[in-house]
């Protein structure tokens, strides 16, 4: 096993060390690969407790789950992530995820959901944004 460690700053700007144990070599490629893995963990959290609550769906048959939910779920997820990018690019993030940039707590998907809820409270429709930014 290897330990990959790096320095960062916490929400107060104080230095903090992060470390993970891995069976991969402790180099920058593993660090980048780990960053993608953390993004995947965020996606799973969004699909379960962060928005769609798939863990509470009650569907137990995998084939039925895939047929009924997976395609619409993926389309809705990508759409709400695109909405989030639109919201951030226009400078509206502070309207749904208030505070300093270091204290922002919402994922890409959750900002899209929060924007949808904000517009719903003003009885406005969610824009049909399908622009995928880099």
Using brief descriptors, characterize the structure shown.
single chain, 134 residues, two-stranded antiparallel sheet, 46% helix, flat
- Structural class of the secondary elements? alpha+beta
Oligomeric organization of the protein chains: single chain
Total count of strands: 2
Q: Name the beta content range.
A: 5-15%
Radius of gyration: 18 Å
Mean of all residue-level pLDDT scores: 76
What's the structural blueprint in terms of helices and strands?
Layout: E1 2-9, E2 15-22, H1 28-47, H2 62-89, H3 108-121
Antiparallel strand pairs: 1-2
Short description:
The chain is α+β, with helices and mostly antiparallel strands.
Report what the structure shows.
- The protein has 134 residues and is of the alpha+beta class.
- It has a domain at 69-134.
- Helices cover 46% and strands 12% of the residues.
- The protein has three helices and two strands; from the N terminus they run ββααα.
- The chain has helices at 28-47, 62-89, 108-121, and strands at 2-9, 15-22.
- It has a two-stranded antiparallel sheet.
- The radius of gyration is 18 Å and the shape is flat.
- The model has no long low-confidence stretch (mean pLDDT 76).
